């Protein structure tokens, strides 16, 4: 419990210190991006995959921002991504808060999996999916971001959007499943002579 | 099929418009913008093509922001004069998108149909560094698209170009708005 409230505090602090911009610019720009991908007339599954890829690109950069800010704000705190289960709290209460100003609830599904439940979807203001795109994973960029971030700190994961407000669900649910650690690169690179 | 059969809990049109816009962090937006730029860069064949794609994206944002801002204003009369709509643009729309007003609005001395909007550091370009191989590319063309989208949706046909001004620090940019002939004829009829 105390761990959770300290994450919340860290998230609030990081949010209050980060420079901000209006969310309508953000959501509309994201809408334009999705629209651009859709007009190149590829099937929804391809658009969803592109969004995941875009999210991953963003995630690999966001993680730098995340680690530098959290270690500045909370220098004595525990390493935010030391274990797979601790990443859930870090994403839900600090990461999402720091970048999008929202927090998520964590539901632990198993030892190697958890779900993040967001009561509101910050990307989906003003969004309505047309019928022919009803299977589009509109918020896949968030899944991609989480995947990119976690892979950058050495966790192999599968991330999937399972519920979304644009599909008519009452919340946005992102399922994160651990597939093991990525050790080889690090061990190879840091061997002592 | 995915949940398409389940009834929508709330349609976007049924929701009230936010009176006060929410906020997201600047890093989130700039990284997203960078992805948009990269996406257009790969599909563009030339620098001018690249700028027009980016400007088209901006058009969509500007058009929607105009519609939203004019609703949030509480159904006041819509702007029908050139100066009125430009002021609405450089104050209300600029604030709802960039959290600040444009630095200044000027009328061109050369032509009665030309107006200039100055911004010392247009938000989307804050962290953009243009490589020398693309030196003629201006990322602020996204913002010029926003300006064009908002003005055209308001019923003021125009061409908008972005020009970097090399003085002082930052990406000082001038957006040159050139209203089309019909708009200027209409404007003269008011006098």
TrEMBL record, chain A:
SUPFAM superfamilies: Ligand-binding domain in the NO signalling and Golgi transport
Leader sequence residues: none
Domain of life: Eukaryota
Pfam families reported in the protein's UniProt record: TRAPP
UniProt keyword Electron transport, yes or no: no
Job of this protein: May play a role in vesicular transport from endoplasmic reticulum to Golgi.
Protein name in UniProt: Trafficking protein particle complex subunit
Source organism per UniProt: Triparma verrucosa
TrEMBL record, chain B:
Entries under InterPro entries matching the protein: NO_sig/Golgi_transp_ligand-bd, TRAPP-I_su5, TRAPP_component
Primary subcellular site in the record, as a coarse category: endoplasmic reticulum
Statement: the UniProt record of this protein carries the keyword ATP-binding: no
Biological process annotations from GO: endoplasmic reticulum to Golgi vesicle-mediated transport
Keywords recorded for this protein, A-Z: Endoplasmic reticulum, ER-Golgi transport, Golgi apparatus, Transport
Record's subcellular location: Endoplasmic reticulum; Golgi apparatus, cis-Golgi network
Record-stated family: Belongs to the TRAPP small subunits family. BET3 subfamily.
Subunit architecture: Part of the multisubunit TRAPP (transport protein particle) complex.
Name of the featured protein: Trafficking protein particle complex subunit
């Amino acid at each position: 419990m105390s761990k959770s409230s300290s994450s919340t505090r860290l998230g609030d602090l990081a949010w209050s210190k980060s420079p901000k911009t209006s969310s309508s610019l953000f959501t509309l720009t994201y809408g334009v991006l999705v629209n651009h991908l859709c007009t190149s007339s590829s099937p929804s599954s391809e658009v969803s995959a592109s969004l995941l890829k875009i999210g991953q690109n963003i995630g690999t950069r966001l993680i730098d921002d995340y680690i530098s800010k959290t270690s500045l704000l909370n220098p004595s705190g525990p390493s935010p991504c030391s274990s797979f289960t601790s990443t859930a709290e870090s994403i839900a209460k600090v990461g999402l808060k720091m970048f999008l100003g929202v927090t998520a609830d964590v539901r632990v599904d198993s030892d190697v999996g958890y779900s993040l439940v967001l009561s509101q979807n910050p990307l989906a203001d003003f969004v309505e999916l047309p019928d022919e795109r009803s299977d589009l994973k509109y918020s896949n960029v968030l899944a991609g971001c989480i995947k990119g971030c976690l892979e950058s700190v050495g966790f192999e994961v599968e991330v999937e959007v399972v519920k979304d407000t644009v599909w008519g669900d009452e919340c946005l649910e992102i399922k994160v499943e651990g597939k093991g650690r990525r050790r080889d690169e690090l061990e190879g690179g840091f061997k002592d002579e | 099929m995915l949940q398409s059969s389940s009834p929508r809990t709330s349609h976007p049109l049924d929701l009230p418009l936010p009176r006060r816009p929410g906020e997201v962090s600047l890093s989130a937006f700039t990284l997203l913008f960078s992805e948009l730029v990269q996406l257009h860069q790969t599909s563009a064949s030339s620098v001018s093509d690249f700028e027009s794609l980016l400007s088209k994206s901006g058009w969509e944002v500007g058009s929607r922001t105009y519609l939203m801002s004019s609703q949030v204003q509480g159904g006041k009369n819509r702007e029908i004069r050139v100066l009125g709509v430009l002021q609405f643009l450089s104050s209300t729309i600029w604030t709802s998108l960039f959290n600040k007003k444009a630095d200044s609005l000027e009328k061109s001395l050369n032509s009665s149909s030309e107006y200039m909007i100055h911004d010392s550091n247009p938000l989307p370009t804050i962290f953009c560094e243009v490589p020398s191989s693309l030196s003629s590319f201006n990322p602020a063309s996204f913002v010029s698209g926003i300006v064009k989208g908002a003005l055209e949706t308001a019923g003021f046909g125009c061409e908008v170009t972005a020009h970097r001004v090399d003085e002082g620090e930052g990406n000082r940019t001038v957006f040159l708005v050139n209203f089309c002939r019909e708009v200027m004829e209409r404007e003269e009829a008011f006098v």
